[in-house]
Amino acid sequence: MDSTEALTAYDQQIRQSPDPDGPGGRVERTDGVVRHVGAAAHDWNGVVWSDLDQDTADAAIAAQVRLFGGLGREFEWKLYSHDLPADLPERLLAAGFTPEPAETLMVTEVDALALDATVPEGIELVPVTDEAGVRLMVAAHDRAFGSDGSALGRQVLDQLTAAPDTLAVVVAMAGDEPVSSARIEFRPGTDFAGLWGGGTVAEWRGRGVYRSLIAHRARLAAARGVRYLQVDASSESRPILRRLGFTELATTTPYVYAPGEPLSPGA
Question: Which of 69, 73, 121, 231 is most open to solvent, judged by the fewest CB atoms within 10 Å of its CB?
Answer without folding.
Answer: 121
